[in-house]
């Protein structure tokens, strides 16, 4: 039976600060979707008029991961792949904005099966792996053009690291053990530290606008790493210690698998959302803008390097 919190499920009144937060998330997500649609039209037209040979070389190099290409079959360009990866992230984050939830706590804003952790975590997993793949493609592209082996090696490491992080995330939400959330986010920190190293290696290879973009990306990653290490990971460790001190032993994996599919608690209490609001607001705005920016950068690589 799904656990319901009827005493806390009054309508989401606009006098409630949670309503304003949710309204902001939906507004930003709607704008992000519109931006992706506009970008798709522009980049797809550009790619169709001047397909990049480098993009095809990149896709051939990644064929082991995405499947082999027949010699005369229809080919998929790199920008097509990047657009799909970006769409998965933009629309995945929009879905999570429209139906916010906190996985381990099983809390959500709206009483629908779409708010279940099983659905939301599945959407998040696909979106986050696609976001990591975008960074991998960018590093591979820049590293190949500049013959920077460090960047190319970094590109191959990122997605496997994030896949491992997703496994820890799933184990955390299934067992309701925050310690594994701390490991998950630590792995994200390691992955983006490697991205930062790869981008840093590329700095001497470029000048002008490209170097400015690279410097901005490194600074953004440094801020992200600082947030993870000073806010996000400590938050999960604090919750884990509180659970241990309170004797909460969590759920067994099989029990947890049923729980993530059948239990969601609707609450509009700001006290239960306040620690989620900061990271969700940044995640569903700035991170999505980064995904869109990566797509634009990749789409115009022909003009940048041509």
Itemize the secondary structure elements and their pairings.
Layout: H1 17-49, H2 53-61, H3 63-66, H4 78-98, E1 101-102, E2 107-108, H5 117-146, H6 149-175, H7 178-202, H8 208-245, H9 253-262, E3 265-266, H10 270-299, H11 301-305
Parallel strand pairs: 2-3
Antiparallel strand pairs: 1-2
Helix pairs in contact: 1-4, 1-10, 4-5, 4-10, 5-6, 5-7, 5-10, 6-7, 6-9, 7-8
Our count of domains comes out at 1
Supply Rg.
21 Å
Q: What structural category do the secondary elements indicate? A: mainly alpha
In total, the number of strands is 3
Overall mean pLDDT score? 87
Fraction in beta strands: under 5%
Question: What is the helix fraction of residues, given as a range?
Answer: over 70%
Instruction: Characterize the overall form.
Output: globular
What count of helical segments does DSSP give? 11
What summary fits the major beta sheet? 3 strands, mixed
Q: Note the gap between the termini.
A: 60 Å
Q: How are helices and strands ordered from N to C?
A: HHHHEEHHHHHEHH
Low-confidence stretches: 1-9, 50-58, 60-75
| Strand order, largest beta sheet | 1-2-3
What would you say this structure looks like, in words?
It is a single chain. By secondary structure, this protein is an all-alpha fold. It has one domain. It has helices at residues 17-49, 53-61, 63-66, 78-98, 117-146, 149-175, 178-202, 208-245, 253-262, 270-299, 301-305; strands spanning 101-102, 107-108, 265-266. α4 runs antiparallel to α10 and α6 (149-175) runs antiparallel to α7. The chain is globular.
Question: Which labels suit this protein?
Answer:
306 residues, 76% helix, globular
